Amino acid sequence: MPPDPGIRRTPRPATTITTVAAAVAVATAGTASAQNPAPSLHRSGRVTLGDASLEPGTTDGSALVRLRTPSRIDWDSLDLAAGESLRVRSETGSLASLHVVRSGQPARLAGRVTADGPFYLLSPGGLSLLAPGSVRAPRIFLSTLAAADESALLSGQPTAFSPAAAGPVEIDGSLTTTGGPLTVLGSRLNVTETAALRAPGSQIQLFAADSATVTASGAVGVTGVPPGPHHAGSSADLTTRGHLAARRIDLISEGFLRNGGRLETGGSNNRVLLSALSSTHEKHPDNASVIITHKLVVDGAFFPEGPIISPREGTNPGPVGGQRQTPRLSEPGFITQSDGRSTPMAYSPMQTLATTSPIPSTSPAPAVASRGRPDETTEPERPRPARRNPATVRKASFFGQTVKK
Fold this sequence. Notes:
The structure is a single chain. The protein is built from two helices and 37 strands. The chain is mostly beta strands. It has one domain (39-357, 386-402): Single-stranded right-handed beta-helix, Pectin lyase-like (Pectate Lyase C-like, 3 Solenoid). The chain has a 28-stranded mixed sheet that branches. It is globular.
């Protein structure tokens, strides 16, 4: 029967089926998500050596590791967001834990890591400690270089570390040890302006290697390197712009080293070691880049621009003639080449740092009594000599091995 022409039929919207289907899909996806949540941190790790357990933390994305013996934990991924935490607790004593990222992905730590025993982390794919991330433990050993014997770290024995396919390391957050050494190994290391590395009473070692095999242990850090690893073709690079404080600071690179931060050592036998094919100590306003130590050991070509001062001199000398003066390093400060020669701090002549609000001065800067030796006087800033070609600079030895002269 033909339709009545007087009746108008309104067609059903074509989108109705699509809309319903979309709603069903969203509901289904929500149900699936609820049934299959993203794995929490403690589920991405497994104990592969020793006796330990992994438990969920107090917040989402956090984990608690309970140690009954020194243990190794393998992680599919190690990614801590800000506000998340990884806590390592020993049931007896102060037990070591070794954490290895097996996926080849870089470890990303923007949260808080705390351990009551030595904390060791191997992440060959790379490592980023992002602000406000922090690691705090009695001893800290971080490496993107692969260990020949991982279990040796737990026993405190030295083992070889190879830089083959090693990822870079970037540190924006803080690393703090409570009595032991702080060691970081990588192919390229970048310590940014926001970073703070502290090892009170102990040592900080940063080592950038792209071909040399390094011997190290979790207990004492780097214990040996092959002779003469400095080479012009190296891509290894070590840059520090943050604040490093310890009794001893060793910055070592197969290739190049740049310090634009604050290196501060204190206590008995304190020392800073700069060892690289070419090392540069940059100059920045208001002592943002400064080396404060009683002894500076230089290995390789050295281009100092920033101040190098003794702890007794302080870090904020008064202005003279409109400029803030950085005094000559006083005794017992000296530079030691690694062939054993010790010389006065010839690399640290009187230098000046512009103040944030320069003091007007219409007359030459007067000579004033030095805070070094009583018979010395300071003088206006000398013209800085032109930077020399690294190829013409005497190359010192590397841990006793002559590289180039």
